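User: I'll paste a sequence; please echo it back and then give the predicted structure.

Assistant: Echoing your sequence first, then the prediction.
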Amino acid sequence: MPISFIEHQGKKIIFCDFKEMKDKQQIFDQLDEMAETFKQSGGNLLVLTDVRGTKNDPEIVDKTKRLGKEVFSVYAKKRAIIGMDGLRKLILKGYNAITGNDLKPFSTIEEAKDYLIS
């Protein structure tokens, strides 16, 4: 289930699983589903996104930036991401600057969940 809700220490977290996605259209569809879920939530979301092994190209980055600014930053209280290493960390810095998001990178899902509920 790519977009789901999980619980960690009694708190609800939306989990956006992009792990190992390679098909650009599948990623676009998932981003759209994620945006719609955020809009229906009413806001103050704790969000965990897993992008380990996911395809990355300029069109995907552009769509993510647009939705980040228009939707994700509006409805999310805290956001964590795993799978951002090397060059992807630089892309994340730019994403945060452009969108006004404060998306924090982590090495493991457990570290990310602990951050979100803190």
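Helices lie at 24-41, 58-75, 87-99, 109-117. Residues 3-117 form a domain with the Transcription Regulator spoIIAA fold (CATH 3.30.750.24).
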